[in-house]
Amino acid sequence: MKHSHPSFEAIKPNIGSSFTSLKFLTNENIKSHVWHYHPEIELIYVCKGSGKRQIGSNISYFSDGDLVLIGSNLPHCGLTNENTNNEYEMVIQFKPDFLGEAIWETPEMQRIVSLLEKSKAGIVFGDTVKKEVGKKILDMHDSSSLDRLIRFLGILDELAVTQDCRILNAGKYYLQTQVEDNDRINVIFNYVKDHFREQMTLEEIADLANMKVPSFCRYFKKITNKTFTQFVNEYRITHSLKLLAEQPLSITEVCFESGFNNFSYFNKTFKEYVKKSPSQYRKEFNYLIE
């Protein structure tokens, strides 16, 4: 089976604009299976809907839409597919120097400079900011020329000052700066994405990377800041969150559907990652199982 590398995506700004602003209706931008990167920084707003986000080595679940800022060359998958049930998706893409170099030296821009630096690890924003800024992104998209640019800088400044956000990749995220590592690590990421429901041994994964197990373990930890087992568990738990929120399956079925073959281990791992039990999590979604 052939495994895809992260593809390089070429992006052109809108005509008459220094950056790109795109609006996709439901199911128009299905890229959740496409692992890609580009030098442009990307601000994505998903209006309503739920799904998985995979940005760098972070895999997490979102519900009731999403607002994320993805830094330059940070590999990621698209956020929406036919199961997301979102109303629409806004995608803004801009080169780090889209206004030239000198403007970033000005005192007025220092907050935004700091935001863009943090975006190298991926940033997700909380509910209040998501709804307020989402509306502003839509208004910005419908305006033109200088008005559009001024609104966009206002949006970036608002994101720069909010405390209601979370960095997605802890520590230094090496994939962002070492594009030559992309091919090897992405064979592994894609393999996990395709096979997380099955049992995977360290031997077969190390083999995929053309490495011996001990050196593979060191390499993976250096690049992602987590062990391979942690990474796989995180992927499986994220999938279980999606199933618990969206599917009328029993918790035992969710456990096995997510690639865990031991129910008590699933419960223990779930609590470690989510800080509550699967049944508590489901109750909070008001999902009534007959």
UniProtKB/TrEMBL annotation:
<keyword id="KW-0804">Transcription</keyword>
<dbReference type="InterPro" id="IPR018062">
    <property type="entry name" value="HTH_AraC-typ_CS"/>
</dbReference>
<dbReference type="InterPro" id="IPR020449">
    <property type="entry name" value="Tscrpt_reg_AraC-type_HTH"/>
</dbReference>
<dbReference type="InterPro" id="IPR011051">
    <property type="entry name" value="RmlC_Cupin_sf"/>
</dbReference>
<keyword id="KW-0238">DNA-binding</keyword>
<dbReference type="InterPro" id="IPR014710">
    <property type="entry name" value="RmlC-like_jellyroll"/>
</dbReference>
<dbReference type="Pfam" id="PF07883">
    <property type="entry name" value="Cupin_2"/>
</dbReference>
<keyword id="KW-0805">Transcription regulation</keyword>
<feature type="domain" description="HTH araC/xylS-type">
    <location>
        <begin position="186"/>
        <end position="284"/>
    </location>
</feature>
<dbReference type="Pfam" id="PF12833">
    <property type="entry name" value="HTH_18"/>
</dbReference>
<protein>
    <submittedName>
        <fullName>AraC-like DNA-binding protein</fullName>
    </submittedName>
</protein>
<dbReference type="InterPro" id="IPR013096">
    <property type="entry name" value="Cupin_2"/>
</dbReference>
<dbReference type="InterPro" id="IPR009057">
    <property type="entry name" value="Homeodomain-like_sf"/>
</dbReference>
<dbReference type="InterPro" id="IPR018060">
    <property type="entry name" value="HTH_AraC"/>
</dbReference>
